[in-house]
Amino acid sequence: MLSSRSTTVKNLPLKRRLCFLLKLVCFVSSVLIFCEFLIYYVVIFQCRWPDVKGGAHMSEKETSASVLKAIILADTHLLGEIKGHWLDKLRREWQMERSFQTALWLLQPDIVFILGDVFDEGKWSSPQAWADDVRRFRKMFKYPVSTELVVIVGNHDIGFHYEMTTYKVNRFDKVFNFTSGKLITRKGINFVLVNSVAMEGDGCAVCSTSEAKLVALSHKLNCSQQKRNHSNKGCSDVEKLPDSEPILLQHYPLYRRSDAECTGEDSAPPEEKNIPFKEKYDVLSQEASQKLLWWFQPRLILSGHTHSACEVLHAGKVPEISVPSFSWRNRNNPSFIMGSITPTDFSLQKCFLPFESRVFTIYCAAGALLVILVLAHVQLLTPPFYFAQRLISKHKAV
């Protein structure tokens, strides 16, 4: 009888330790699950599709039939084998995968556009490294049959103009079914895909082919937008497209002097805003920009490349939105654009992803609390309740 009681007493500290250890495991697991999984749902759940003109007066069925829901993101920069550290890869790719998959599940877009620089080292990649990068991309950015994914080429995918080769361009085209001057029409909306790296204007083989396709597409779109009663012999045999002003999708922004006029919390840092942009490197040349505006007379231009947000009005009427980077490696506050688009109108809304600084703050606060709990448990740190109790008992004894 006595021996069994003594065994029970000895087992009590062990049970308490195991119970405390279990509590610590649950605490650490909860923090990890929230910061690495649930936080994406909490943040993206707050994003809402913007209303487009007339959309507020339509029924839900009419809206889904006439309004195209598009997500636009840019500059994912998947790290390669040369510059990419394995831990950096693991962290950044997990963040982008969770953000993308959560956005698809919660927002259910019709189409997703990625505006170039999908890879960080596509301009250098060997065939083996390229295949590995593509495999990782397809895993991270997998999508359901109800959603379409369209990828635009960027300078990090095929190199700047002096690095660009037909081999690299064809390699990218084969994977993503991309060609410059390609037209995508969805729900009566015309999207023009542009290889902005090939807009150098120096007559290189890739540039000449790309510009020829753009000119032909421009002619086709212009013929389709002419009045029905207006006869034009040059348009008699041209395939008619939906009579909708196109939206240009490209990697490089059109020419602007700098980001000095850009505003917003995800615009360029103050110390970078007044740095002049270099033509054909930071932005397209003035000549190439004027060509695209003249050829297509777009109602909207969407671009990436600068990693920061900006809104510019060209020729006083054509808005261009520079989409910031989708990767936490380039920004503390990545985001993507949500667009509700019809053949005659559009409305855009930005959806911010979790701020990395806030995630680190949660981890630091949880780590500090964990240390306090452990020290209190091993009695190296006196809990406040017992400290106050001891003060009261000493006061009574006096």
TrEMBL record:
<keyword id="KW-1133">Transmembrane helix</keyword>
<dbReference type="GO" id="GO:0046872">
    <property type="term" value="F:metal ion binding"/>
</dbReference>
<dbReference type="InterPro" id="IPR004843">
    <property type="entry name" value="Calcineurin-like_PHP"/>
</dbReference>
<dbReference type="GO" id="GO:0033116">
    <property type="term" value="C:endoplasmic reticulum-Golgi intermediate compartment membrane"/>
</dbReference>
<keyword id="KW-0813">Transport</keyword>
<dbReference type="InterPro" id="IPR033308">
    <property type="entry name" value="PGAP5/Cdc1/Ted1"/>
</dbReference>
<protein>
    <recommendedName>
        <fullName>Metallophosphoesterase 1</fullName>
    </recommendedName>
</protein>
<dbReference type="GO" id="GO:0006888">
    <property type="term" value="P:endoplasmic reticulum to Golgi vesicle-mediated transport"/>
</dbReference>
<comment type="similarity">
    <text>Belongs to the metallophosphoesterase superfamily. MPPE1 family.</text>
</comment>
<keyword id="KW-0472">Membrane</keyword>
<keyword id="KW-0337">GPI-anchor biosynthesis</keyword>
<feature type="domain" description="Calcineurin-like phosphoesterase">
    <location>
        <begin position="69"/>
        <end position="308"/>
    </location>
</feature>
<keyword id="KW-0378">Hydrolase</keyword>
<dbReference type="Pfam" id="PF00149">
    <property type="entry name" value="Metallophos"/>
</dbReference>
<dbReference type="GO" id="GO:0006506">
    <property type="term" value="P:GPI anchor biosynthetic process"/>
</dbReference>
<feature type="transmembrane region" description="Helical">
    <location>
        <begin position="20"/>
        <end position="43"/>
    </location>
</feature>
<dbReference type="InterPro" id="IPR029052">
    <property type="entry name" value="Metallo-depent_PP-like"/>
</dbReference>
<comment type="function">
    <text>Metallophosphoesterase that catalyzes the removal of a side-chain ethanolamine-phosphate (EtNP) from the second mannose of the GPI-anchor protein intermediate. Participates in the glycan remodeling steps of GPI-anchor maturation to allow an efficient transport of GPI-anchor proteins from the endoplasmic reticulum to the Golgi.</text>
</comment>
<keyword id="KW-0812">Transmembrane</keyword>
<dbReference type="GO" id="GO:0008081">
    <property type="term" value="F:phosphoric diester hydrolase activity"/>
</dbReference>
<dbReference type="InterPro" id="IPR039541">
    <property type="entry name" value="MPP_MPPE1"/>
</dbReference>
<keyword id="KW-0931">ER-Golgi transport</keyword>
<keyword id="KW-0479">Metal-binding</keyword>
<feature type="transmembrane region" description="Helical">
    <location>
        <begin position="360"/>
        <end position="387"/>
    </location>
</feature>
<keyword id="KW-0464">Manganese</keyword>
<dbReference type="GO" id="GO:0012505">
    <property type="term" value="C:endomembrane system"/>
</dbReference>
